[in-house]
Amino acid sequence: MSIKAGIIGGAGYTGGELIRILINHPSVHISFIHSRSNAGKPVTDVHSDLIGDTSLEFTSEIAQDIDVLFLCLGHGESTKFLRETSINPSIKIIDLANDFRLRKDRKQPELNREFVYGLPELNREAIKTASNIANPGCFATTIQLGLLPLANTGVLKEIYTTGITGSTGAGQKLAATSHFSWRANNIQAYKTLTHQHLGEIGESLDQLQPGTEIELSFVPWRGDFTRGIFISSTVTTDLSLDELYVIFEDFYKEHPFTTVSRAPIFLKQVVNTNKAVIQLEKVGTKLVIHSAADNLLKGASGQAVQNMNLLFGLDERTGLNLKPAAF
Amino acid sequence: MSIKAGIIGGAGYTGGELIRILINHPSVHISFIHSRSNAGKPVTDVHSDLIGDTSLEFTSEIAQDIDVLFLCLGHGESTKFLRETSINPSIKIIDLANDFRLRKDRKQPELNREFVYGLPELNREAIKTASNIANPGCFATTIQLGLLPLANTGVLKEIYTTGITGSTGAGQKLAATSHFSWRANNIQAYKTLTHQHLGEIGESLDQLQPGTEIELSFVPWRGDFTRGIFISSTVTTDLSLDELYVIFEDFYKEHPFTTVSRAPIFLKQVVNTNKAVIQLEKVGTKLVIHSAADNLLKGASGQAVQNMNLLFGLDERTGLNLKPAAF
Amino acid sequence: MSIKAGIIGGAGYTGGELIRILINHPSVHISFIHSRSNAGKPVTDVHSDLIGDTSLEFTSEIAQDIDVLFLCLGHGESTKFLRETSINPSIKIIDLANDFRLRKDRKQPELNREFVYGLPELNREAIKTASNIANPGCFATTIQLGLLPLANTGVLKEIYTTGITGSTGAGQKLAATSHFSWRANNIQAYKTLTHQHLGEIGESLDQLQPGTEIELSFVPWRGDFTRGIFISSTVTTDLSLDELYVIFEDFYKEHPFTTVSRAPIFLKQVVNTNKAVIQLEKVGTKLVIHSAADNLLKGASGQAVQNMNLLFGLDERTGLNLKPAAF
Amino acid sequence: MSIKAGIIGGAGYTGGELIRILINHPSVHISFIHSRSNAGKPVTDVHSDLIGDTSLEFTSEIAQDIDVLFLCLGHGESTKFLRETSINPSIKIIDLANDFRLRKDRKQPELNREFVYGLPELNREAIKTASNIANPGCFATTIQLGLLPLANTGVLKEIYTTGITGSTGAGQKLAATSHFSWRANNIQAYKTLTHQHLGEIGESLDQLQPGTEIELSFVPWRGDFTRGIFISSTVTTDLSLDELYVIFEDFYKEHPFTTVSRAPIFLKQVVNTNKAVIQLEKVGTKLVIHSAADNLLKGASGQAVQNMNLLFGLDERTGLNLKPAAF
């Protein structure tokens, strides 16, 4: 099979990662990479690490003879784009922004499209039969993977989460906090208790553990690295560590990209891969769940391709056996 | 005044920082720097950044005509050292290890010495009249500074703390987790809920808020930087943010090294200084207290000199107006 | 075709990278991964980023029904290993150490083997018909790629080269200069003018430009990053920049992993890939050639697989379309 | 003595470093810190690491009852500023930009001022009696310190220099190459053979070794750290390493901030200090001179204060005994 794919917003970080994956995907042909500001330029002018790998150029045209369209736009811009641009209804859409993630946004009668929240570990069966995917956020993915088995067991109540993210999580726009002189060797909290991913996390937990008011206090930190998210969530539970490990291992046993580890995990285990790792530790009644993922891959473009694979009946892992950076 | 100071364990990280401070301290003369393994070598053989600044050599002798002795040894080694080495009773001792920090360890009848827990923001008056100081741990210092005003108000109950520390916090011994190839761009949790500083933190909170069982769940992380600690602690309280800021500002108003900031703080504000910064954020009933300090300075050798200044009646800040690294 | 491969020394950095590549190589089956010190342990105990990707275990056995054996041992240990271990003569050997790189070491009558210097851009035809490969050094590869077209044109005389390498270039053994606290944010020269790769570079230049005494002054630096080598070599020539670009582009036009760039190159263009990039700049008679490669891939394990592909008649690129780390 | 100092351009990197030094300088009172864009704001709004250290505010006024005025403006803006702003002729000026460094720019009849090139190791006596100082560039300082003793011996002819600089060398303006995601773990050459500091270096070498056409091929690199410059220069000479060390040690023996080291030097030896270190290595006729300095201190604001000390008859080191960052 050859899936014809188009990319909107190919000059950004998630667009670039998508291209890096898709040019080596055995079942995908990239039909076009759209970028308004770079139309006509070689893709390697922007993603210069692809030198020697591709001679594709950015285009301002949007071909309609494609099977899937990836939207790699800023948050809020996907809706605008779909309203202004006629897209053949038979084309499946995978949106990497936050436009269609929440329940209230998933049905879009005006666009004549309905979106499924694309976290395969939560919604794999629904994704397989979906036409449109709302790809989860990076923090949302990594936090949820640490909590879903507990929600599924019905034991969540109060959660205290700290997470740290690399600079690519903030996109490529220049800002004081993305200046190397500031960010190198630095740590800062931001959006304390108010991060925009809290909504989608809450809805997923509610999907598995409905009827409980689950309180999630999340403190995100900016880290002095480029890729990856590391999370530690603390909850209270009487379940034993062994029982908990069994619950987690059962929950993920059919999910190839999420691994439960009984050895200490660390961020670089998953950098430059589509994998997530989870580790549990318990003292008294306090359980700490550590989880890690690459914000641009499992947290964005890798998961988008995983979703595409599911949408088109491919093995979930196709094109996603990425060599870890490791160091 | 000229205080004659001796240093035991001058080849390690805290010993080195102490030397860096004391060679520019206007009221201190370094009598000797003891290092068993480096005796006879120039100090700059080990601390080569001091090239051009000092011609001191490490010694194996311990002169007794000094006023103060700093112990910069590994944890547990201070007790051993003092048992095996006769130190003139008139010499004040400042111990940077964890040997004498806990209540049960402060009175040492065998050594004929009694130690005061040397956190000036908690015990300044007691320090001024003390003879021996147990210098607090680095995580302990930074976490406590974020919590003391709340303990003093009597509102603490459950605390969820995440902290991140630089590589110098683990000392200079070689280990898999201190290898550059591993630690660069990496994050890992360690000693989850079991960090050895929990004891001293608990006792300090109990000193200000006695009779409450305060639960502190602390998840420490290894960070990919060399210096500094950043902490976010989450607690539940009905006090308003304004009330809380007033409480914190009042608590620290006479303490020159701890500043309460209404602007967002970040780690590099305090790197290479003896300062700590604190910021508060509140959403609903959840209060997050961020705090940051340099683990080798306010968290170790800088605070040791601050304590020395207090012991000898000097202005607390003498010799500690350090230029921030800033970048 | 399925090539059966064995790996000796699978616990080190180059062994790990080789595993990372080979587990996804479509034409290779890993028969065994030998590690004396780790025999019986899962490979993921050492290379924990492979969690979820492989259930292979290190072995102490060396199976003889394989097609190719990779030696990922310390320098000097390959000779010792081959002398002490009987290896079926039909098994091809690819040695990643420096044991057989120099002319004087390539014929090994005692071992009944003859090695070809495995730089495909220099010796591709010879590699295709070889039985044993001496895989080039990392600095040697990156420096040579910047100089071979000039040697081929016969214009080299005096070369001034500075290069910087990541921490993985020094292997995983612990050392003062591999401690994170030392190496972070640091730069140091080492092996100034005496680097062990000068020999193989000199012989390659002599192969293309025989009879000239070419002087190469090489200053290597330790960099504060984990992966990659960046080189700037300065030479004197009357050829114009345009002529030079044509010479370089011609030289590499059939070589898929080495790209000549007219835009400014940078290290991260090639990190986590098997690619090398080259850029030229000229002012007056001075030509500066910049080149960059990943020391563990094009500079070691990636090139080893490229050589294996050539040895077995596969497309050079098989299994080496690696997603760049990019950030 | 109390020197009254004004600062123009106090919001930038060099302005900030100057403030960090001067607020602890025992003989200086900061009269004002001028910043057009920040007038009225606390200095800590911009330089937030100074929290707790100063309550100064940026001003738009320029008081005339000062002794010295530091210009911390962009290159080319100092001339403009002095033409547009009346400055009392008795006020000494120290310019940190490149406006007055070259011979042709040092005499400014229109401004009625004459500048001395402020490299104390070259021009200390002239600085002591000067009224206006052109403070050297950061690369210029570090490269010259490695070459001046050779120029003084009259042996320079061809010099091949590579240097690497931290991100603060490029100032605080946002740019693609200052984005953390790009610069982290990266290396790139820039301004190859055309760096703007070549002029001032050439004039200094000519001052000590007049009449020789000295060729300096300089390749600057961007490094993935914030502070510091590391240089390796290669020259050809028949002098022995011992003779050379004596020449260097003699040249710098009265200069407190420049140290010749017979042990290997590294960048972090001098970070956050006003010091420079130099090391020599020789193989055959090739001599490599390594030198390192902090670009913001010995390469900018620290040297500016050193020059101020000389201008006002103070010990050169006053206020410049800075604790090294060390890690």
From TrEMBL, chains A, B, C, D:
Kindly give the SMART domains that the UniProt entry links to this protein: Semialdhyde_dh
**Which SUPFAM superfamilies has this protein been placed in?**
Glyceraldehyde-3-phosphate dehydrogenase-like, C-terminal domain (SSF55347), NAD(P)-binding Rossmann-fold domains (SSF51735)
Indicate whether Oxidoreductase appears among the record's keywords: yes
Gene Ontology cellular component annotations, sorted alphabetically: cytoplasm
The record's Gene3D superfamilies line, in alphabetical order, gives: Dihydrodipicolinate Reductase, domain 2, NAD(P)-binding Rossmann-like Domain
Q: In which pathway does it act?
A: Amino-acid biosynthesis; L-arginine biosynthesis; N(2)-acetyl-L-ornithine from L-glutamate: step 3/4
Q: What is its EC number?
A: 1.2.1.38
Q: Which domain of life is it from?
A: Bacteria
Picking any one GO biological process from the record gives: L-arginine biosynthetic process
Q: Which reaction does it catalyse?
A: N-acetyl-L-glutamate 5-semialdehyde + phosphate + NADP(+) = N-acetyl-L-glutamyl 5-phosphate + NADPH + H(+)
Extract the GO molecular function terms from the UniProt entry.
N-acetyl-gamma-glutamyl-phosphate reductase activity; NAD binding; NADP+ binding
Instruction: State whether keyword Cytoplasm applies.
Output: yes
Which ranges of the sequence are coiled-coil? none
- Pfam families referenced in this protein's UniProt entry, alphabetically: Semialdhyde_dh, Semialdhyde_dhC_1
Q: Which residues form the Semialdehyde dehydrogenase NAD-binding domain?
A: 4-130
- Report the locations given in the UniProt record: Cytoplasm
CDD domains under this entry?
AGPR_1_C (cd23934), AGPR_1_N (cd17895)
Keywords annotated in UniProt: Amino-acid biosynthesis, Arginine biosynthesis, Cytoplasm, NADP, Oxidoreductase
The active site of this protein is located at C138
**Function as written in the Swiss-Prot or TrEMBL entry:** Catalyzes the NADPH-dependent reduction of N-acetyl-5-glutamyl phosphate to yield N-acetyl-L-glutamate 5-semialdehyde.
Family assignment from sequence similarity: Belongs to the NAGSA dehydrogenase family. Type 1 subfamily.
- Please give the name of this protein: N-acetyl-gamma-glutamyl-phosphate reductase
Native organism: Niabella ginsenosidivorans
Q: What is the lineage of its organism?
A: Bacteria, Pseudomonadati, Bacteroidota, Chitinophagia, Chitinophagales
